[in-house]
Every structure is written in structure tokens, then in C-alpha cells.
Amino acid sequence: MDWIINDELGLTVGHLVGWTSASFMVVGGVLPYIPQYRQIKQTQDPEGFSLHVCLALLVANTLRILFW
């Protein structure tokens, strides 16, 4: 049973969970790149940049979006 938060809007807990999970799917693809970017920015050295990590993240996020 979904609880109705506001009768006028018809907003239910199911809708909120759906919007939250969809938003996380969009933003979550970028989050793993932030530590790598910060390391490169702090050291001013692109040695921390790994193409293999980028490839793995891109494939994983593409599969996640296709699954969704």
C-alpha cells in the first residue's frame, strides 16, 4: 500500500522512491570520477589518471542505464 502524501498532487511514497532512484542513476555515474579528479588537481600531475578505470566505469554505467 502506498501512502498518499498530498491528495491534490497524488504524490505517493512509490513516486518519491522512483524519482529518487532515477535521480541517483543519473548522478551516480559521475560520482566515481570525483576522487580521481581531485587527486589530479591536487598533485597537478595526470599520473593518477587511469584509462582502464574510466573504461570500466563507462561500461558499468552504460550497462546500468540499459538495465534500468
Automatic annotation (TrEMBL):
UniProt-annotated location(s): Membrane
Membrane-crossing residue ranges in chain numbering: 16-37, 49-67
UniProt GO BP: phospholipid translocation; retrograde transport, endosome to Golgi
One Pfam family linked to the record: PQ-loop
UniProt entry tagged with the keyword Transmembrane: yes
One GO location term (cellular component): endosome
Keyword NAD: no
Keywords attached to this entry: Membrane, Transmembrane, Transmembrane helix
Membrane topology: Multi-pass membrane protein
Domain of life: Eukaryota
PANTHER family tied to this protein: PQ-LOOP REPEAT-CONTAINING PROTEIN 1, PQ-LOOP REPEAT-CONTAINING PROTEIN 1-LIKE PROTEIN
Protein name according to UniProt: PQ-loop repeat-containing protein 1
Organism: Anopheles dirus
